[in-house]
Amino acid sequence: QVRLQESGPGLARPSETLSLTCNVSGGSTAYYYWHWVRQHPGRGLDWIGRIYYTGGTSYNPSLTSRLTISLDTPKNQFTLRLMSLTAADTATYYCARSPSGSPRVYFDAWGQGILVTVSS
Amino acid sequence: DFQLTQSPSSVSASVGDTVTIKCRASHSVRNWLAWYQQKPGTAPKLLISAASDLAGGVPSRFSGSGSGTDFTLTISSLQPEDFATYYCQEASSFPLTFGGGTKVEIK
After folding, report:
1. Are residues B99 and A44, on separate chains, in Cβ contact within 8 Å?
2. Which of A98, B26, B63, B83 lies in the 20 to 30 Å Cα band around B32?
3. Which residue among B42, B46, B101 sits closest to A107, beta carbon to beta carbon?
4. Are B44 and A108 inside 8 Å of each other by CB?
5. DSSP letter (8 states) at residue B55
6. Which residues of A touch B (CB under 8 A)?
7. Which residue from B36, B94, B99 is facing A58, i.e. has the nearest CB?
8. Is residue A60 within 8 Å of A76, Cβ to Cβ?
């Protein structure tokens, strides 16, 4: 059974760049899409972006100018880089998986989430 | 902008009750809608995809219906472990969108 685990800093400074990694174990990254979703404290879920196992990406337009998602296939992990952080980026960040082979996007596996606080 | 509107935002119910949660899309999404359950401090869990297909391991007391713009999640015979927040998610266009959530609380 696949397991996703986020890692990265719990505290980041305003204007800096956040880098989070999602490690995928118990399965391959092949033939899936790999996503980042965030949840502001006490709020709902916001889709950040995704990367396909071949490297193609799609980003939320609200974050495109600050966002990069990359995939390291040999290490079975993918990474989020979010630049120019503000307090509004304080959230729990989840990595998640959706199967390919269908235009429908459903998240069938999730990491446990990592709380990132942006503060000086 | 595309929107998913859930109602109610919260509902109080007792064990054994039937709970109905609505999700309305601002334009048709055919049946490309999912439902998730999230308990405090944990990640969301997929309950239903394609509006009505139960995900593996999900109890049959959960059911989904609807197409186009109006969808329903029904929880029959509510169990203690069902008290959680439920989200709908549109699965057909980008950026992917979630509803605002419905919190099911113990009465």
Report:
1. yes
2. B83
3. B46
4. no
5. P
6. 44-47, 58, 60-62, 94, 96, 103-108, 110-113
7. B94
8. no
Burial of B105 (0-12, 13-18, 19+ CB in 10 A): exposed
B10-37, pLDDT tens digit by residue? 999 999 999 999 999 999 999 999 999 9
Q: Residues B1-15, buried b or exposed e (16+ Cβ, 10 A)?
A: eeebebeeeebebee
Structure tokens at B65: 């219906």
Cβ of B57 under 8 Å from any chain A Cβ? no
pLDDT (average), residues A51-66:
95
Per the listing, tokens 């509902």 go with: B11
* Burial tier of B21 (Cβ tally within 10 Å: 0-12, 13-18, 19+): buried
The reply to whether residue B87 touches residue A111, judged by beta carbons under 8 angstroms, is no
CA-CA distance, B101 to B107, in Å (whole number)? 18
Residue B92: predicted pLDDT: 82
- Of the residues A107, A112, A114, the best mutation for testing chain B's interface (the one with the most B CB atoms within 10 Å of its CB) is A107
For residues A112 and A94, give the distance between their C-alpha atoms in angstroms, rounded to a whole number.
7
Say yes or no: B64 contacts chain A, CB-CB below 8 A: no
Q: What is the pLDDT of residues B45-103, one digit of tens each?
A: 999 999 999 999 999 999 999 999 999 999 999 999 999 999 999 998 889 999 999 99
Tokens describing residue B18 = 């039937």
